[in-house]
Write a structure and sequence with these properties.
This protein is about 35% helix and about 25% strand. By secondary structure, the chain is of the alpha/beta class. It has a single domain, classed as 3-Layer(aba) Sandwich (Rossmann fold), CATH 3.40.50. The strands form two sheets. The protein has a six-stranded mixed sheet, sandwiched between helices. It has a four-stranded antiparallel sheet with strand order 2-1-4-5, with helices on one face. Helix 5 packs across helix 6, helix 5 packs parallel to helix 7 and helix 6 crosses helix 7. The longest helix is centred in the C-terminal third of the chain and has 18 residues.
Length: about 290
């Protein structure tokens, strides 16, 4: 059964950017070679692989302009939810709509409204950041002159030095590559921005630069942001509301202050880490990767 407490806090009023209604996503993992070679009398689950429920009857809404956080360790369904919202996966049950467009039946319309940054962003590694960004601009029919100006501005605000704009991506650090991925997403002026662990692997200064840029863009363009993270401080600093997810289910949904207010103070301000421990019975720690693509 789902925890009813997460339904007690309604979202702020306003046009809905995102609606997630009773969504389920199940993956069937591949059995090992040893299991496939077992005799026919072996249990089916050993010969056919394991059924993994990555997203288990999840529901929430996100109004336009909100920064909505999905908080939890790796392996709990966060990235699968982002892939579902971005049309990379289709729900097995339930529905997801972006400004009224269904991710399954209105895929092209949804793609025009969103962009996604993942922790494993792909590039043409032999090309420079500027060449990668200009290629992306052409794919999204962004005017080349405008794209070039925006790319220089965004990368500068993210702390990328001018001399790095034309260096091959393969020569750049993981943190610098992630900044380029974020610039690529913002280049298309998405109405909904899906950030899947955007600051993982970044040094503290780069983290602050990325977080500050997200805040600035949200304020300037009324962009709706969905952010997945297992960084409690990042979630606390950036998010208007946070859904805590565990084993594919939402166990709490509230503002950061509301979540922390569920615990007694005991002489100090409770942390989101303590909230997660209270709700799930275990500390927030990075676990294995999620099932699925």
């Amino acid at each position: 059964m789902s925890n009813p407490r997460h339904d007690l806090t309604p979202p702020p009023k306003g046009p809905l950017a995102l609606e997630v209604q009773d969504v389920v996503k199940v993956f069937q993992t591949r059995p090992s070679l040893r299991a496939r070679l077992q005799r026919s009398g072996a249990p089916d689950e050993n010969r056919q692989g394991k059924r993994v429920v990555a997203v288990d009857h999840v529901s929430f809404t996100v109004p336009k302009g909100e920064v909505f956080g999905i908080l939890g360790p790796n392996g709990t369904g966060k990235s699968t939810l982002i892939r579902l919202m971005s049309t990379l996966l289709i729900p097995d049950e339930g529905a997801i709509r972006v400004f009224g467009y269904d991710v399954g039946t209105d895929e092209a319309a949804v793609k025009r409204l969103i962009n996604r940054v993942s922790v494993d962003a792909a590039f043409f590694k032999k090309l420079s950041p500027m060449e990668n960004l200009m290629y992306a601009a052409r794919l999204y029919s962004v005017d080349p002159g405008q794209a070039r100006r925006e790319a220089i501005s965004i990368l500068g605000r993210l702390g990328l030095e001018d001399r790095s704009l034309w260096s091959p991506m393969e020569d750049m650090s993981r943190g610098m590559q992630q900044k380029v991925a974020i610039a690529r997403a913002f280049l298309t002026s998405p109405v909904v921005l899906l950030l899947d662990e955007p600051t993982t692997g970044l040094d503290p200064r780069s983290k602050r630069e990325v977080q500050g840029f997200v805040t600035d863009v949200r304020a300037a363009h009324d962009t709706t942001v969905v952010l997945t993270t297992h960084d409690m401080e990042e979630a606390d600093a950036l998010c208007d509301r946070i859904a805590i997810i565990d084993h594919g289910r939402i166990v709490a949904l509230d503002t950061p202050a509301g979540l922390k207010g569920r615990l007694p103070r005991n002489g100090h301000e409770p942390t989101l880490e303590e909230v997660f421990l209270e709700l799930t019975g275990r500390p927030l720690a990075a676990e294995g990767e999620e099932a699925g693509p």
